[in-house]
């Protein structure tokens, strides 16, 4: 994702890495796992997860009936319009696209998956795009209301509720909630419906009492305070929905094994 702040990028990596899934880390290559299923005539059949058309980290069944890569742009733009309007109305500050909206969903925003995590091919591709950012933020006592407005728009759009990207535990608070009275100077939330996600991040580096965050922002030419919103999804390759549905049919209802390869 493109953002202007390392601090924001660190938080957003949590949401992105869960669902982009262009890799699963470094794994020694192992044989693909197998499962035994019953055929239509009642016979036992062994299937190999090498033939799974999605990815070890993705619930492929959730993609059945979902838009493919060619069909996604229209609905996704509708989601972003709704969230942008809700955030701007509640916060009172405008959100600007970091790249021209005409370039959203361009070829550079797409990341085809090369493997399925079991040594086979994947029919999925991921997109990260549509980054919006403000140059100011409301006072911290209004941040909850901004998140609530974004949440309402996302729930209405069908993505579900926003959840905190990081638990507000002691470690988090010691790093990001060091303002007066324990005020957090950076918070990030993500909504995820199984194949698409939207993140909303609010930060005000001037509230960091150490001054480190503000100094970094000034050195890099970033806004001292900003709201950031972005979109991503993992979907079936364009024009392959029927092929995908046929390929995943033997795996429907089965528990996915852990990945055995790092693709």
TrEMBL record:
Residues 1-22 form the signal peptide. It comes from the Bacteria. Keywords: Signal. This is Uncharacterized protein. It comes from Microbacterium koreense. The lineage of its organism: Bacteria, Bacillati, Actinomycetota, Actinomycetes, Micrococcales.
């Amino acid at each position: 994702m493109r953002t202007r702040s390392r601090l924001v990028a660190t938080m957003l990596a949590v949401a992105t890495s869960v669902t982009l899934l262009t890799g699963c880390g470094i794994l020694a290559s192992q044989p693909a796992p197998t499962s035994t299923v019953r055929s239509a005539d009642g016979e036992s059949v062994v299937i190999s997860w090498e033939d799974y058309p999605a990815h070890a980290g993705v619930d492929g069944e959730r993609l059945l009936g979902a838009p493919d890569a060619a069909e996604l742009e229209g609905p996704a733009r509708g989601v972003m319009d709704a969230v942008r309007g809700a955030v701007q109305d509640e916060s009172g500050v405008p959100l600007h696209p970091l790249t021209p909206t005409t370039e959203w969903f361009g070829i550079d925003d797409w990341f085809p998956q090369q493997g399925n995590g079991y040594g086979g091919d994947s029919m999925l591709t991921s997109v990260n795009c549509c980054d919006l950012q403000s140059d100011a933020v409301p006072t911290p006592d209004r941040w909850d209301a901004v998140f609530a407005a974004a949440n309402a728009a996302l729930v209405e759009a069908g993505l579900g509720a926003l959840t905190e990207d990081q638990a507000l535990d002691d470690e988090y608070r010691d790093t990001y909630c060091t303002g007066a009275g324990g005020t957090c100077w950076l918070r990030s939330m993500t909504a995820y419906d199984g194949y698409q996600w939207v993140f909303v991040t609010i930060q005000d580096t001037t509230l960091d009492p150490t001054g480190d965050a503000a100094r970094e922002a000034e050195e890099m030419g970033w806004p001292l305070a900003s709201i950031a919103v972005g979109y991503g999804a993992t979907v079936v390759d364009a024009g392959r929905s029927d092929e995908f549905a046929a390929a995943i049919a033997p795996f429907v209802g089965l528990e996915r094994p852990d990945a055995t390869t790092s693709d």
